[in-house]
Amino acid sequence: MSLITIFDPWKSNLCSCPDKFSLSPYTGCSHGCLYCYASSYIRNFSIVRQKKDFLKRLSSEVKKLPPSSILAIANSSDPYLAQEEQLRLTRGALLVLKNYDLKINIVTKSALIIRDIEILKSLKKILVSFTLTTLDQTLSKKLEPRASLPKERLTAM
Questions:
Q1: pLDDT for the residue numbered 112
Q2: Helix count (H) and strand count (E) of the chain?
Q3: Residues contacting residue 66 through CB under 8 Å, at least 6 positions apart
Q4: In this structure, what DSSP letter does residue 147 have?
Q5: Of the N and C termini of the chain, which has fewer Cβ atoms inside 10 Å?
Q6: How many CA atoms lie within 13 A of 65 on its CB side?
């Protein structure tokens, strides 16, 4: 199974979105968000698993992408989970990807992304999006119990 896949959740010609690829270093997510849609279709979603031989496979697969492709990291699980602090798969992926002409789109709820700020600055075409559900810290702890607090996300922004 490929690491880099076409992102087309609607599987319809009616979608006017530009073609986009998806990359996730991990399967599952540790944030525990109550509103998570991915937990309904990924088995054992709360158990985070790193993808086998991720960086080696990525180094091979990325060469097949057309220039200027949009690559979203990650659509189903946050690329900056608590496990990323030790495993560094997202960081490793960015180091590989910076050598290619790609448009990188990262979606996160984690302030850990600031660890990689120098790598992100070196990317030519980068978009970082933060999910910010509420500014209420108490409510955030209920909705997204293990994600960075809203104040930490705002600081990271």
A1: 97
A2: 6, 7
A3: none
A4: S
A5: N
A6: 28
- Tokens 């970082």, located at residue: 128
- Across the chain, what does the average pLDDT equal? 92
Paired sense of beta strands 102-108 and 49-50, if any: unpaired
> 3-state SS of 34-71?
CCCCHHHCCCCCCCCEECCCHHHHHHHHHHHCCCCEEE
Strand partners, 21: 6, 71
How many other C-beta atoms lie within 10 A of the C-beta of residue 140? 21
Q: Which residue from 125, 155, 112 is spatially nearest to 26, judged by alpha carbons?
A: 112
pLDDT of residue 40: 84
Cis, peptide link before residue 93, omega less than 30° from 0? no
The beta strand positions in 58-123, using DSSP E, are: 69-73, 102-108
